[in-house]
Please model this.
Amino acid sequence: MRLSKLILNGFKSFADHTEFRFDEPIIGIVGPNGCGKSNVVDAIKWVLGERSAKSLRGSAMVDVIFAGSAVRKPMGCAAVSLVFSNPVLEAPVKVHERSADSTESTESASDEDAQDSTVENEEAVVRRAHVRHRALPVDSDEVDVTRKLYSDGRSEYLINGRKVRLRDIKELFMDTGIGTDAYSIIEQGKVAALLEANPAERRAILEEAAGVAKFRARKEEAARKLELAEKNLVVLREQLSGAERRLRIVRGQAEKAKRFVELDSRRRALRSALTLDQYHEQRSKLTECEQAVIAAEAARDALTQTLEDAENSKRLRETERDLVMQNQQGLERDRFEAASAVKQAQQRIEFTEQALGETRSALEQDASAIGALDGRVAQHATQLAELILAVDLAAKAVLEAEEQNAVAAEARAQCAADASAARDADLRWREEHIALEREKSRLAARRHAAEERLASIDAESVRVTARSNEQERELQTHFTARDLAATRRSEAQTIAEKIQAEVVNELRNVESYGEEGVAINERLMTLRDERTRGESRRAILEEMESAREGLGGAVRTVLGDQDKFPGIRGALGDLVSTDRVNAVAVEAALGSWLECLVVEGTVEASPLLTHACELDGRVTFAPATIADLFDATSPASPEACPEGARPLRSIIRVSGGAQGIIETLLRRTWLVNDLATALQLSIGDESGSRFVTLSGEVIDHLRTVTVGKLRGGSGGSVIRRAELTELTSSNEILGGRIREIEDDASRVAALGTAAKSRHEERDSALQAARRTAIECEFQSERTEQLITRIERDQVAVRFEVAEIARRAQAAQQEQASIIERLTLADATLSTADANATSAREQALERQHILDQAQESLSAARLMLGETTSRAQVARREQILIETALQESRRQRVTAEDQLRRREAHVETLEESISESRSVTQRAQQKHDAIAVRLADLAQSLSMAVVANDAAGEVLRSLRESASDTERQWSESELARRECSMRLETLTTQAREELGLELETLWTAHLEERESGAFVLTDRAIASLEADQLRDEIRSLGNVNLDAMAELTELENRTQELANQLTDIDSAKEHLERLVVELDATSRVQFEETFNMVRENFGGTNGMFRRLFGGGSADMYLIPMEDGTIDWLASGIEIRAKPPGKEPRIITQLSGGEKSMTTVALLLAIFKSKPAPFCILDEVDAALDEANVERFCNSLSGFLDESHFIVITHHKRTMQACHRLHGVTMPQRGVSKRVTVRFEQVGVGGRIAESAIAADESANEENSELVAKPGESALTNN
Model:
């Protein structure tokens, strides 16, 4: 096998289709620096699967696509192909069967194949297990490996034109020495990396040569799968345990569900028959009711025309009567106003005269108050003089009390000194007494201790005896406890079984509450969706309101530019609002006025008109004071509300000062319920008014009628704001309902939590019962141990009795000695007590004198305090009198001012009385004239009333007849609707509860009833049986209908988990065996390869001696931390001894020596297991002439099995090549291949112009030869 050619197209600087043929043993690639020689190496690495853009000297992978130049456009794709010859081998390739089959059966797609997800799942291209007679595992004489990358990031790998994965590329070259990091590509960077590599990194290169890399990859994959299998085993065991527990629970639920289905099916059949029977009955009643309704409607229509004629006659009489009444009411109002004016004037006179009398009375009271204040001022002055004198006397008394207090304090100090001396003498005798008492107490304590010891010894004797008796009793007790423990253990086991049943029951309750919670959550979601729709609609309306939807462009311009159009309060439509029901009527009544702009002040005085004339559209301005202008030019007239109507302005809420505009626009506009009422009122007394219906129809004062939807049905700003208000309210209601359902959900969740808690409690109780059984067993064993211990203690009791007798005798002797010493201490204590009593009496006498002095001092201090207090009281009274004197003087000045004001008010009241009397006289004259005119209208009104009453009597009689007819129709219609509602209820219940469509089933039911074989259902018996079935269903409790399907699913799941568990156990054992086998195979192959490379590198005929012309070198494994050599993990170190120098490790050599040593190692690896080709990229750059000569000579030994592709600038290396390919860059950024000879390459790899020109001529001739067959074909035609 060999690399026969390389084809590049759009890769880096090779923009054109470029082909390199490698049909000689050593091929040289030459050219000046920067011409693109290294791009050839990058292309080969890229095809072999290099995924690091940095390794390809780029920042991103798309950098490998030709990026264009000054005269060339960028390309959208880069493609590189490697073509290998793949001959048939004489002997088939050996494959480690067990390892290959095992890993292939367990391998899965790795991360490196993620980008190749488009590869179809078809027959594998690379099949080493089936293709063993060729070097590459592809059954073809030539293998074309291609990689493509598109500018959009898509990547493709192809083998012989078929798409494959990156792992297939790696599998193709596995164990061949060909790869991105293999020893078949030796670059300057790789040489430097090997020089700087640590021992572990050097080992990786040797593993590739030994073919161990594939085993390591498979081992890592097997280890990963083994870890995953162990995790899966744990998970599967847990799942299997849970499934088995659930299976035991569900099996009982499934049996109950099966019984429920049987009972429910029978009950549904009974209910279906009952429902159909009831439906047939209601349909018959409905037919009868519809016939009655038709008859009533005919009678009602006959009376309708007669009633309309009578109403028209009655309306005419009412109009005549109302006209007379309006005139009469006008005169009555005028008379009432005149009478009111007379009455108001008289009342004003009375009020004024009353106020005049009150004012004069107040004048007299003010004069009296001034006299009283003068007397109070004189009294306060006298009191103040007396208090000043009392304050001076109190100050003198305070000085005398302070002197007495000082004398008493001095006497007390002397008495205190005498008492202190007496206390000191008493204290000395007390201390002596205490010392004697302490000695006596010590002796008494010792005697008491001796007595206690005797008592203790006696008690101990009793205790020992009691202990012996207690031991006997304990033995009996423990025997009893052992029997009791056995009984309790049996009881605990019984309780545990009972609690186990309760645990299962509570678990069912938890499931029931869970299902109820799901139903509540569904209702909650429905309400939330409804609220969301409302919020969405509200957001749309708010957006329309914000955008001023419906207003003209000019109006929006004015409202959006307040600086240019100042004084605008807003559009009238934005300043009015109403509720949703009346919004349509308000919009219809105001119409285009809703776009009117409300202006502060008057329009004439505003600069708005100048700017508004420049707008693209019409704008209407209205002053906010329009009502004042209207009232000033139009006389006020009262408005009487027509019957069945109400003022439209009464339902409108106005802001922004637009109240006057609304009052003016809607002065005679009335709101009615429907168009008929509006038409009726428009031809009566209100013929000059406008009428608006709730649905938006308008009848103006000219009786023109406007109907239809507003603005295409969407309405304007008033309707939008009304809808916004209604949506806000409805959303709040929905929010309340949602909160209620959330409370229900919380309640159910709480019940579920409580049930779960009870389940956990019962489970805890179950564990407690089990612990009790264990404790009882432990107690039995403990009792046996106690019995053994008590028997040992009984032996020790007998030795304690003798010791107690000896201690009792010693205690009695000590007690006699203490009593003798205690008698002597009593005599000495009596003498000390007599001396102490004398000293104590003297101290008491001195203390008595001290107490008397203290009392005198206290009395003096008390007198001083009282005197000081009296002085302070006198000072406070002085201040109060001074304040009262000032207040009296201020009140007198105020009273004088008030007296003067009231005198002026008397004069004003007298003038008002005179004016009111003149007004009263004029109003009385007007009142008398109106009374005469009212007497004339009274007779006319009487005649109109009589005519109206007669017409009313006729109309009332007709209405009574119509009412009777209407009542008959209503009763028939009500009966019909009740039947319809019952039918609808039956239909809904049947659809929701039974899933039946009664309309469809009833037709077949009628046919069955008409047949002779139909048997009527006995409702009572059927209802009774249905109720019994319902009760039986309820007795089943909560039923899990999914339990039957779940049972089957769980049984299948349990069996499936058991099978999976068995499979994973088998896979785990298989993977463990595989890891052991891979380690053994890797160890053998690496050891063989290492020894071979070691010999080829440092042996007698090794590459080191050949390259250096002598010296020695060695390669050895570094021991592990424990000092042993591990063939699977130990790193590799290199030691070299160039000729005439001391042995050193590779990092201690000079630069040239390092390069030569590294090249020698790489060639030794290559010799141990030659690859089909080897690329040497300027590895001779650091070598001198002599070393280059030896380097070139060393390549000849490899040519039997491999061929070399050498990239070089060195003339000696070029001379050793059998063919040279030149790389030039005729255009900046575009590389080109040319065929050159040795003598055509100059210094620095520069290629002669003659070689370039000759290659271009050869290419043109080839192009002509390709084109000639086509030309001859055209000639023949």
Q: What stands out?
A: The radius of gyration is 62 Å. The first helix runs from residue 37 to 47. The longest strand covers residues 77-85. Confidence is low (pLDDT under 50) at residues 97-118, 632-638, 1269-1277.
